[in-house]
Design a protein that fits this description.
Elements (H helix, E strand, L loop, with lengths): L2 H19 L6 H10 L3 H6 L7 H22 L5 H12 L1 H10 L10 H5 L6 H19 L1 H11 L1 H5 L9 H13 L4 E8 L6 E8 L2 E8 L2 H13 L2 H7 L9
Antiparallel strand pairs: 1-2, 2-3
Helix pairs in contact: 2-8, 4-5, 4-8, 4-9, 5-12, 6-8, 8-9, 11-12
Amino acid sequence: MKDIQVDKIVSSKIALLESLIGKRIIRRSCRKTFIMAITHSSFAGENKDYLSNERLEFLGDSVLSLAITHYLIENFPDLQEGELSKKRAYMVSEKSLSDKALELELGGIILFGKGEDKNGGQFKRAIIADALEAIFAAMFLVFGFEEAEKFIFRIFKTELEKLESVEATDYKTRLQEILQKSIHRVPEYKIIGEEGFQSEKVFIAEVKINNRKLGIGKGKTKKEAEETAAAEALNSEFIKKIERPDNKAESQ
């Protein structure tokens, strides 16, 4: 693809992104960060001057988690850690992210290589969820955490308002279904510790698969601790990877 054509495509995508985030991206260094956020690895592979959004996705995951944690702490002062963890896991799950990315038509903003574009990359849930996280990271790097948080709260406004009525999900069942379907294994749970006095004891549970630690959780009962550990596991990179149709995780 010729440089002039690439520049036109990139400029049109950035214009769409500016409309989405509600901000102008003027400085060259800032534009570079946001261009990276919407660059899929297939596009970077075809255009040597562009970097994929994989590193930003890694950062964006933490930005989103911190923003949602902040919201939960401010709005649910009476909830214990276990319930807070479950609500956070619900909000930061790949399903939640991909649902929102589809709603925002984010696929039309992402820069794809020719092959991935023909294969419907803009509708692949894992890809668009990752791109949304990368945009969170770009917002943080360019405009600061407060602006990134405002953007997250704005686009997830409806979901956040419904959080109070969200019923606790059976995360253990969900985790087992994913693992059995993907790698034909079942998770193993173990209580690895206790905290507090007898009257206010908190159990600490760990969940593993083939000696690979997936998550740790706490709860007032052993069952609650295991549920919280499963919720954390569902948000782990290992589970995110094996849920993607174009990736396979090693079971050993």
